Amino acid sequence: MEREHMDFDVVIVGAGPSGLAAACRLMQQANEAERELSVCVVEKGSEVGAHILSGAIFEPRALDELFPDWAERGAPLNTPAIRDEVYLLKDASSARKLPNALVPKTMHNVGTPGAESGQNYVISAGNLCRWLGEQAEELGVEIFPGFAAQEVLYDEGGTVRGIVTGDMGVGADGEPKDGYMPGMELRAKYTLFAEGARGHLGKRLIERFDLAKGRDPQHYAIGFKELWDVPADRHEPGLVLHGSGWPLDKDTHGGFFLYHAENQQVVVGLIVDLAYRNPYLSPFDEFQRMKHHPLLKQYLEGGSRVAYGARAITKGGINCLPKMTFPGGLLIGCDAGTLNFAKIKGLHTAMKSGLVAAETVFEAIQDGGDEGGQELTSFTTRWEQSWAYRELRETANFGPAIHKYGTLVGGAYNFIDQWLGGKLPAVHDTTPDHAKLEKAAKSRKIDYPKPDGKLSFDKPSSVFLSNTNHEEDQPSHLRLKDPAIPIRDNLPTFDEPAQRYCPVGVYEVVEGDDGQPKFQINFQNCIHCKTCDIKDPAQNIEWVAPEGGGGPNYPNM
After folding, report:
1. Of the candidates 83, 37, 7, 16, which has an alpha carbon nearest to the alpha carbon of residue 362?
2. DSSP assignment, residue 281?
3. Around 520, how many Cα atoms within 13 Å sit in the side-chain half-sphere?
4. Exposed, middle or buried, 227 (CB in 10 Å: 0-12/13-18/19+)?
5. Which residues pair with 186 in a beta bridge?
6. Cβ-count burial of 360 within 10 angstroms (0-12 exposed, 13-18 middle, 19+ buried)?
7. Separation CA 83–CA 63 (nearest Å)
8. What average pLDDT does the segment 427-450 reach?
9. Parallel, antiparallel, or unpaired: how do β-strands 329-331 and 325-326 relate?
């Protein structure tokens, strides 16, 4: 198809922290050099921040570099972390608080030694991105929300030359509807891919350019988050709780968080490692029953849930970090996997990767690369000299040690490793998350309690609070490579785990017209968490971008 096109110096895919940091830094350099530079950010969400979901405790080190006057500019960092508490939930009713001396230094948020400001903040990552978007536009960046990057644009030599946005107004039958609008080519000298965890274009680039060669397979978790209005007497702004243990069993790793934010609100969540083994496990239901523990219940009881969301987390660390350069572009942020899981933080490292990318790209353009398309190998040198890369190197063993030795022994290994500055022998986990599932016949069925509608809830009411919407008459963006696999293979072997790992009930096994089991995909409910693309044991489900503007619309998340 002959498509209309627009030309830019730089196209950035994704208005998240890494993409927006890169956009801002590019324009800062251009303005300082008094050079014209065209930068475009394309965002599949209906607005900047609509698809952003994170805890979040924010370490402002990269923000200090990008906007030293961020406080004067009104950045939404309003609630300093004032106290850390870390717990082990022993069972459904008891908990043990860890002495501060036994809490790994990466889990300290008050006066964090690694942060230049010495202080972390309880924030809304979505609101931070909305603010960064405003700064970017003031600097001259063009932001196109509601447009999904559907394909990578290559030239005849295989160099990345931009992206193609998705067609709008295509019916479920694949035919154009009234108001059909074909996608547009956004051409660029350099393209930065900042889609977040398991980006569908990033996934293709990693495969096409063999960027994961010599690395461990990437590892993921699913993170749940709810926003609650709570009574004033249960609210302590800046109180930060973390912990692990119940309700997860010894073969399922993860942990909870509960942060006291501003405006008499708390955020509560659970992170479940997607290397779990039991196909009957439902991460959503584990999260719901977790909130009944007295430690968490004391803060939520009498409150009301106002928002819900879930998102995959790229957590493999430096052992799994792919090569981030290829001809014509870069992978940055969680599209590559820059999150420091030992800190349970990725915003600061994602932003730093964006700053390094911007400085590398601008230098290449300044040096006369009018055509662009080079492989920016100097990015690797800059990145490996950064404090963000050093963080990842020092915590390389965190994830694989827990996978190999379990939460307690692995946690102890990491405590010693961090105390020694990351000098214990390297640990690796070379088994992909989807390959960890055991057969249903050998697994324990889990009887989850019925939600009470006060602390715990069902999936339909939860997806409602995510403000998720997709145009129903469009092709499904959840594609099966072989439609027969769910019923023929996954159902008898694993009792089709998609019924349980999806956090919003997209996948169901129902009775068909012929009385036989049928695999049903309710793609309208999809909140773009990408868990299905990661955890399906047959790797048969492929997540691609739906029509732009679809998906969740998270407020203050």
Report:
1. 37
2. -
3. 13
4. buried
5. 6, 163
6. buried
7. 22
8. 96
9. antiparallel
DSSP-based helix, strand, coil % in the chain, nearest 5: 30, 25, 45
What pTM, to 2 d.p., does this model score? 0.96
Residue 32, token pair as written in the block: 């300082």
Residue for token digits 């493999």? Answer: 316
Which among 545, 542, 537 is positioned nearest to 486, based on CA atoms?
A: 537
Average pLDDT over residues 339-343: 93
Going from N- to C-terminal start, the domains of the chain cover 5-69+125-216+318-394, 398-427, 458-543
- Give the right CATH number for 5-69+125-216+318-394 from 3.90.600.10, 3.65.10.10, 2.40.70.10, 3.50.50.60: 3.50.50.60
Distance CA 350, CA 333 (A): 4
**In this structure, which topology does domain 458-543 adopt according to CATH?**
Alpha-Beta Plaits (3.30.70)
Instruction: Return the number of other C-beta atoms located less than 10 Å from residue 90's C-beta.
Output: 11
Q: What is the pLDDT of residues 19-62, one digit of tens each?
A: 999 999 999 999 999 999 999 999 999 999 999 999 999 999 99
Q: How many CB atoms lie within 10 A of CB 535?
A: 27
What whole-number distance in Å separates Cα of residue 472 and Cα of residue 469? Answer: 9
Q: What's the token pair of residue 294?
A: 């007295």
Q: What is the CA radius of gyration of the chain?
A: 23
Mean predicted confidence (pLDDT) in 60-83: 97
Sign of the dihedral defined by the CA atoms of residues 160, 533, 49, 147, in that order: positive
> Phi/psi class of residue 109: alpha, beta or left (left: φ > 0; alpha: ψ in -120 to 50)?
alpha
d(CA 301, CA 231): 9
3-state secondary structure 67-119: CCCCCCCCCCCCEECCEEEEEEECCCCCEEECCHHHCCHHHCCECCCCCCCCE
In this predicted model, what pLDDT tens digit does every residue of 360-380 receive, in sequence order?
Answer: 999 999 987 668 899 999 999
Q: How far is CA 526 from the centre of its chain?
A: 15
Output the CA–CA distances (angstroms, integers) from residue 155 to 68, 136, 361, 393, in the order listed.
Answer: 40, 29, 19, 35
Asked if residue 302 lies in contact with residue 309, where contact means CB atoms within 8 angstroms, the answer is: no
Query: Residue 333 and residue 325: Cα distance in Å, rounded?
Result: 13
